[in-house]
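Structure, all two chains, one model.
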Amino acid sequence: MSTNQNSGDVLLSVENISLSFGGVKALENISFDIKAGEVRAIIGPNGAGKSSMLNVINGFYHPQEGEVWFQGEKRKSLKPYQIARQGIARTFQNIALFKGMSTLDNLMTGRFTKMSANIFWQAIWKGKAENEEIANREFVEHIIDFLEIQAIRKTPVGRLPYGLQKRVELGRALAAESKLLLLDEPMAGMNIEEKEDMCRFILDVNDQFGTTIALIEHDMSVVMDIADRVVVLDYGRKIGDGTPDEIRGNQAVIDAYLGVAHD
Amino acid sequence: MSDLDTFPKVLLKQSRELENHPAMREKEYGIWQTWTWSEYHREVERFAAGLKELGFRRGDKLFVVGQNRPRLYFAISAAQCLGGIPVPTYYDSVVEEMSFVISHAEVRFVVAEDQEQVDKIIDIRESCPDIECVIYDNTRGLENYDSAFAKSFISVQELGDTVCSKDQDAVKKEIDLGSGSDTSVMLYTSGTTGQPKGVVLTYDNVRSIAQICIDHEGLNKDDSVIAYLPMAWVVDHFISYAQAHLAGFCVCCPESPETVLQDSREIGPTYHFTSPRILETHRTSLLIRMEDASRIKRGMFHYFLNIAKKTHDAQGTGNTVSRFDRLMYSIGKILVFEPLKNQLGYSRARLTYTAGEAIGPDMFDFYRSIGIHVKQVYGQTEASPFVTVQPDDQVRSDTVGIAIDQVEIKLTDEGEVLFKSPGVFHSYYKNPEATASAKTEDGWVRTGDAGFFDKEGHLKIIDRTKDVGRLNDQSIFAPKYIENKLKFFPYILEAITFGDGRDEATAFINIDLSAVGDWAERKGLSYASYQELAGHDDTYALIRDCVEKVNADLANDELLSRSQIQRFLILHKELDADDGELTRTRKVRRRIIAERYKVLIDALYDGSERCKIESEVTFEDGRKGTLKGDLRIVSVKTFESMAKSA
């Protein structure tokens, strides 16, 4: 739980990424980087390519052109679980939890990549499997405490209100102890109070665990408050990159958000 | 007892005699952690030594703010060890409230639970420059704060370790300097009127009443309680601190305020202190959940509850219970009542107090009939705190019992209750006028409550003396008495009645969102907000039925039949302590409501059918907003007075 905020090393960079689905160009020649310990926001109007960008970063989509560098290594084409093992975790725009399972069990699934006991040991439940479970449970309990969800520890996730489900999802991503956390619209559909809580948690995660965070968000005001640097996409192209203040003054961004006719 | 006249001295004794007996538990990371009495003492000693090193002197106040956490109790004890005075405060107090107490009590040292509280103290620091240091329990989010001002609890204890390593008896020497007549604690009453007053209680005050109640109820080291009441409330200090020290029982701190019910289910405390409001919430949620249960379970629940009611009623009226019913009750106990008690955390309960407000007869009987022996107590901070307790065999829903040992009660001609006891408070801090007006020269304390003794000598409280008024025809108007009758309906969360100096009685109603919401769901009513539900025609009809039932009830009472409610309205927002409409203990602040909702009160009396209102609301983070409403006013059927027609 050390703090390595803004240490300045580049954790991940994407270079000249282009992604298209058939004739639709989702992303066009996009490059930016994410530094270790920062909160990096990716914003843009609807259909700008934000989620596609996130899917490229976590290896779900493979871009036709361009490279992804993670921790100084060029990334080969990997399966999503291999990427998870490398230290990238994410949440989804539409909650993707196991609805019938309790909060605790959902968080425990986030520890999956940290378990190595084979099926035999798991089955007889002795030695390594047991110790692993205890250690993982302890880690998860710290997250429960951190996110203040003790009261819903044993509640099936499907019965929880939306805002809490989002929090559980964040918890599951945290459970993976990732180096880079990708949050896809963590505040979508929330009321003001829930948004404020979520902002607090995101900043605390960044602060306490030193996790680097890349988040996609619709709500400009939220992003400007919590992000260290912002990259702006519009129609699959990058139109701005810089600190929130620089972005606020960027004419292209203002145009994109206010809506100016495109050629 | 002379050598055990302060709590730190009692703690020293317990740490020797009950060395390995659990004193404190807290659920952390899902597992109950335990401190024995000797560990409790060690924690306190280390913190006290550190506190002293930071410059805390005899007579200094230690402001303690947060939810029930072991370390905050340790801090209270540590302050007392050093001859200081702990000032526990409500954790949900807003900055202005805290700032008043801090400057009034000349606080230099603060112990706060977490970042939220520390942030408030930092805000207050500008207006209260005397604050030297804030010590926090939970370190989360506080790493980058100025460590000269904000220190962690652990760092202070580590400082204490170095002090103790040089002089082992540093704290013991301070403890020996204390005596029973010293101030043990200062509790600010939330004050239904005006600024809060700091009630100064001595060790002798708190200790004597705590011991009387321990002896009376036979509490011992094997009991346990859940500490969930606000630490600033005298009752929590009394039970979780004073009585726990003297009897040596274990105090369990819940994981979070939301998990109290789950935690008490796990612990199964033997000693409960609850309030009618909590009992009501539990019963309402129980009944709602039962409606969703399978048909067999639901049938069993209602059948055995009926048996329980029948048996309980028969016992109350002195009739014999048939053998069949007795058999069925035993079966019900296994199948329904014990599981129910377990659900509510009462599986091992042997003593359950309720206080604070009147309790509805229905609810009272409900709990007693399933075997939860709720009984009522009456008291106030100024009495440290109990005055009366119901004896086990004379429990009634409408009285508060008889005076406990060494306590005397008398009534003035106006019906005000006065008491005299070893627990009579020392004074109000820096407020001799208020002290003089509350305490008579010969040692009686005015409670400000109007009451009378019933035929069996039990005290009955009807209202605050100053609130008992008269209608224009000079008949008595006791607002709280009527409001309580209204509040006994599950749909009504809060009611405020008007009538003093008027021709007739009227009322504001606050609906209970969970009960009315559930009712609406069953009826298929759709609503988007509290406001919309409150203003719904069907909701009005529902509440009107309740009010009419109260009117019918009032008609039976010769004294109060003129106070039947003529017109009422349903408020568009829930009354809230953050808006100053309720006290932190959720009592209605009449004066503020009378000012803020003057338009509505006028409308109740000028015959209008609707009334527009704009009211200010305060969010939890202190920001303000406005809420507009257009409220309907409804007339209600009243009944001929039975007394008159008879």
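Chain A has a mean pLDDT of 85.
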